[in-house]
Structure formats: C-alpha cells, structure tokens
Design brief:
TIM Barrel, eight-stranded parallel barrel, alpha/beta, binds beta-D-glucopyranose, 14 helices, globular, two-stranded antiparallel sheet, 17% strand
C-alpha cells in the first residue's frame, strides 16, 4: 500500500488564468458567458477573484508545502486591444511570480490556455494562418517581459481539446462545428508552438540564460476499442487517436506534419520540446466515431472513467517519440464532495512511482475549485474548496493528504489508512 516517491520527483499544482482570476477582460469566455452559454449560468468575471487575492493564494500554497506552480497569464488582460500593452498587468504578474519564488515555489508559465482576446477572435483567431503573427507577437512580449525570472514555459495548453471543443463539437467559443476547421486550428497551433519554442529560447539566450525549458501541455487519453475483437471498434479507436492526439503530438514534437494536419513549408524537422508535458484525465472506450465511456467502470462526477494505468500507457507512447523528462502538468478529478479525490491522487501517484519512466513532476489539477469552462462553478476539481459567495478558501481533506505526502515524500501505511482506505469510488 505504501510507496516512496522516486528521487527528483516533486509535487505541484496547476491553474489557468481565466479559470481563477475573475474580471471582464474582453476575452472569448467573457463573451461566451454574455451569450448565455455557461451551463449553470456562472460568470468567469467572478471565478476565484484571484487577480485580487493572489497573495493570499500564494501564502496558502506555501503553507501547504507545494513546491511547483503551473500558472497562466491572460492575453486579453495584457493586450486589451490590438497592438496595445497593459504594463500594469505585466507588473502584476511579475510581482506574483517573484512572490511565489520568494516562498520557494518554482513557476511554470502557461502562455495560452484556451482563451483569446476578442480582437483576435474577431479576426478569425487560430483558424487563419495570417493571424499566427499576433500570437507570436504576444509570445515575444511574454519572453521579453518574464524571461529574466521564468525559465520554464508551456506555449499552448491542449491544442487538441481547444480545437475539438471550439470547432468540432461547437460547445466552446466560437461554437463552430466543422472537422475541417478543427484540423486547420490544430495545424496553425502546431506552427505557433514550434515558432514560440524558438522565440522563447532565442530571447532567453540573448539575455544570457541557457536553462530554458519549453513544451506544450498535451492532453492525452487512452483510446481502447470497446470490443477488442471487433475490427470496426479497433479501426475507430486508431482513427480517433490519430485525429485527436497522435497527429498533433508528432507534429508539435518533431515538426513532422502528420495527416490530417497539413505540412507547413516554413517548419523544418527538429526537437521542439525540452520536457514532455502530459495532461491526463481519462480513457475513451470506442465503438464508433465519437466519445464513449466504459460501462461498469469507476467514474467521476462528470462521468469520466477513472483509469490510473492510462497515465503511464500514454506517457510510454510520448516517451517513445522523444526521450525527455516527463512532467504531469495536469491530473485531477471532478469530485464535488471530495469523496474520492485522495484515492484518485494516490492511485495515479502509485502508477507513476512504479513506472520506470523519468516522470519528475506532478502538478495536480487544480489548486482551488474554479470556473470549469462550460460547466461553470458547479464542477469542483480543487484541493482547496472555494465558497464563491464569500471567496473563502478552505483546504479539503484531499488538500491535507497532498501536504502530508509532500512532507513524508510518499505514502506511508498510516497515511493510506487515514486518507485513502476510507474512500471509495462510485459507478
Ligand atoms: C484543462 C483545464 C480543465 C481540466 C478539467 C483540462 O483539459 O486544461 O482547463 O479545467 O481539463 O476539465
């Protein structure tokens, strides 16, 4: 039951600007709310009010002994209009980062996490190749504004999830339903990542820093055929894997554009990540060209299968493509009552501890409950509970468990009995 973390393995937490900061910044999620598209009607302008309460959150993180923090910055806040830079926002984020570092918390900075300024969105956003330059200008600004204090970056969070939800399922802004557009967006985001990778490295090198680490946060899941003996199920599983993740993964990692992504003549073959960044949540069980969930499997409050072994199965695939240290940049679960989160964390950390892969970091998603995109405030993923009315933060049992694991560098039998044994999943 008990296990130790491997040497050089440490724990952090993750978040994204739009999900915690609050505020009307003129971005596509503010807009989506005003169009009445958030299921429970909650407003991202409220969220966790983290833009004002960031010191309190950093203090709490330090009290909880968290060692690494993956945080995002809001493009629309920094560039509220085309060509305009809000210096106050840059100062704000620098203050926050320096404060975290002062508390011994290392920072991994996400540049793009699903959210676009409306001025960019109204030009067609990532559907237009000619718009790539706006994103790269922003990357340049970020590298120049934070390059002296931040060494580690995520260029783009989950291009596949963004492209699929926004352009194929049409549930996220701008709400389109076109497979062709989703593929164009993935192609353009791949180009964005590779060019951003180069910009960040070059900028920091010109500042005299050679320890830069850049990657993109890759949302990967296992696609297993519902019936492994059924040829149609097997073909669909392979195709979905290709469309949703493996084509984009190979393209963004090596510059080798894989069908259905379209080759770009400016991009050469190379190695475009310094660490493998994995966001892992669940597995899809496939019996057709759509998302399916295994029957009789344990599921979280959003109906996602809980499948810890999948994390290592995905990591093995990515490591085969390019051998780099692995950070789990997101893993967590929607558990509104905090009834099984400790077990979930335990089981995922256990498969990591038992694997031979060089997984060196684990960032739990999420630090605090937050604005869960289309689900709004009603889906809770945090180690810390948020009372949205009062903005009161309360560490959950799973949050206590997390701190205890950090203190003990693993899970002792006592910890297991106290936090894990007492919890069960449901179907
Ligand atoms: C995203 C997060 C999101 C989480 C849980 C990930 O795909 O990066 O922003 O909150 O999943 O749904």
């Amino acid at each position: 039951m008990d296990f130790d973390f491997k040497e050089q393995f440490s724990l952090g937490v993750a978040s994204a600007a739009t999900q915690i900061e609050g505020g009307e910044c003129g971005h596509n999620w503010n807009d989506w709310y005003h169009k009445g598209m958030i299921k429970d009607g909650s407003n991202p302008a409220r969220a966790n009010d983290h833009y004002n309460l960031w010191r309190q959150d950093a203090d709490l993180m330090a009290d909880m002994k968290i060692e690494h923090y993956r945080l995002g910055i809001e493009w629309a806040r920094i560039c509220p209009e085309e060509g305009k830079v809000n210096e106050d926002a840059i100062t704000h984020y620098r203050d926050e980062i320096l404060y975290l570092m002062d508390k011994g918390i290392s920072v991994l900075l996400t540049i793009h996490h699903f959210t676009n300024p409306m001025w960019f969105e109204s030009k067609g956003g990532f559907t237009k190749k000619e718009n790539i330059k706006y994103f790269l200008d922003f990357v340049d600004l970020v590298a120049n504004s934070f390059g002296d204090i931040v060494a580690e970056y995520i260029t783009i969070n989950e291009p596949n999830v963004y492209a699929t939800n926004s352009f194929y399922f049409g549930e996220w802004p701008p709400g389109e339903k076109s497979l062709t557009k989703a593929i164009i967006v993935m192609t353009n985001m791949a180009i964005c990542h590779i060019k951003a990778y180069q910009i960040i490295h070059n900028t920091r090198q010109s500042m005299g820093f050679y320890d830069t680490k850049v990657s993109f946060a890759n949302h990967v899941r296992v696609f297993d055929p519902k019936n492994p003996k059924n040829l149609y199920h097997r073909i669909c599983a392979k195709l979905l894997d290709r469309f949703f993740q493996s084509a984009a993964t190979e393209t963004m990692t090596t510059g080798n554009f894989k069908w259905p992504l379209k080759r770009d003549k400016d991009i050469g073959l190379g190695e475009y990540l310094d660490f493998i960044a994995i966001n892992y949540y669940t597995r899809s069980t496939v019996s057709g060209f759509g998302d399916g969930t295994k029957q009789d499997a344990y599921k979280n409050d959003l109906g996602w299968e809980i499948y810890p072994e999948g994390l290592v199965r995905c990591a093995e695939e990515l490591y085969k493509l390019l051998e780099r240290p692995i950070y789990i940049t997101e893993n967590g679960t929607c558990d509104n009552e905090d009834k099984f989160r400790s077990r979930y964390i335990y089981e995922h950390l256990k498969v990591i501890a038992e694997s031979n892969l060089p997984i060196t970091r684990y960032y739990h998603w999420c630090f605090c409950d937050n604005f869960e995109w289309i689900e709004g405030e009603s889906s809770r993923f945090g180690l810390v509970h948020i009372d949205y009315e009062t903005q009161k933060r309360t560490v959950k049992r799973s949050g206590e468990f997390y701190t205890r694991m950090i203190e003990e560098n693993g899970v002792t039998e006592e910890l297991y009995d106290e936090y894990v044994k007492v919890q069960d999943y449901h179907y």
